[in-house]
Amino acid sequence: MKTTTITATIAALFAQLAFAAPVDNLDARAFDEMERRAASAPVERGFTETTVEERASNWVTNGPAPPMAMDVASTWATLARYQSCVRAGYAWSCADCNLLGGSSKNTVLMTGGDDGATPVHYVVNNGSHLIIGIRGTNSNDPASLANDVNFVLVTPSETYYPGIKAAGGMVHAGFYGATTRVAASLAPTVQAAVQGGTTNVIVLGHSLGGAVGQMLGVYLTSLLGSSATVYVRTFAPARVGNPAWADYVDATMGERSQHMVNFNDPVPHLPPLAWGFRHSGNEVFLDKLGSLDPLVCSGQENSHCADKYEEPLNWLASIVQYVDSEVHMGPYVGVTLRGNC
Predict the structure, then answer these.
(1) pLDDT higher for 64 or 75?
(2) Within a domain: residue 334?
(3) Is residue 141 in a domain?
(4) CA 109 to chain centre
(5) Which of 26, 73, 107, 160 has its C-alpha lying 20 to 30 A from 334's C-alpha?
(6) Pairing of β 229-235 and β 200-206
(7) Minimal CA–CA distance to 296: which of 39, 37, 36?
């Protein structure tokens, strides 16, 4: 489908929505360090409106951004390969899948999604962790693009996010709809695997899949409770919700939820801050193309990291260019995400 045709399709969708209602297994040492840091990070419970007010005065937007430890960066590279395998299906036999040990070391428990309204996704057991991968926007499918352009802010269900109404959290309607469909598809498989004894869950996603991955990870944290530890590691996610949502994510997951941004990729700047959206904390930033040395960015929307490239964007007209751009696909610590893998 040509870009001009897709742009016209998006414009029509926008007109409707404007009036719509509201390597082998993971490196053990690196993952141990990830878990240690997460265990020491404060995670609040009983999230309330008062919590939001208190945290609002403590946002860090220009704090330090030190280099990430090499072993932790290596773990991100491994996770990028898992993300690249999101379309491999049950065969698990593409180039990146083979570097991860192929089907002999990774059991695909389920695959789902139609690559349209519901992003393609999988659940894999690699012997020590459940890995969930979620694909980004399919720029050739109007239903997939519709998830992106339905940017009305809505209050999500308390069933998925306890306390979200009191917190004032609101999320992107299109991302939320996609999340509920993905959750319905894979939650039974995840619950069964956790009951079977696999208690570490890692949610991955890229672009649209990164936004869905964050929302899914927060939901699974509530759903699974103390029976599992859920981590979110996403690549180039769009902004998911308002500042109260960003605080809700940080309070619920702390450092267990992180997102990686590649240099001047425009997608993580969408929807714009001016529209009332905000990223949660724990950004991991690659400050130049091909960087193997990520920066660990303190606070939300750190001006020393991706926000240095924040600028007005003609989002609606150029969304196809952005989601298919080279910088958007990587490399992420040396790994380029392969859309056909």
Answers:
(1) 75
(2) no
(3) yes
(4) 21
(5) 107
(6) parallel
(7) 37
d(CA 200, CA 298): 25
The torsion of the CA quartet 214, 243, 245, 78, rounded to 10 degrees, works out to 10
Give the domain CATH number at 232: 3.40.50.1820
Whether the CB-CB separation of 150 and 158 falls below 8 Å is answered with no
Where does residue 218 rank: exposed (0-12), middle (13-18), buried (19+ CB within 10 A)? buried
Dist CA 127 CA 234 (whole Å): 21
Amino acid at 225: G
List pLDDT tens digits, range 247-291: 999 999 999 999 999 999 989 999 988 889 999 999 999 999 999
What is the number of domains present in the chain? 1
- In angstroms, how far is the first alpha carbon of the chain from the final one? 21
Evaluate whether 221 touches 47 at the Cβ level (below 8 Å).
no
Checking DSSP bridges between strand 200-206 and strand 171-172, what pairing results, if any? unpaired
Per the DSSP assignment, residues forming a β-bridge with 178 are none
Give per-residue pLDDT as tens, 69-87: 888 999 999 999 999 999 8
CA distance 212 to 233: 11
Find how far residue 96's CA is from the centre of its chain.
20
340 assigned to some structural domain: no
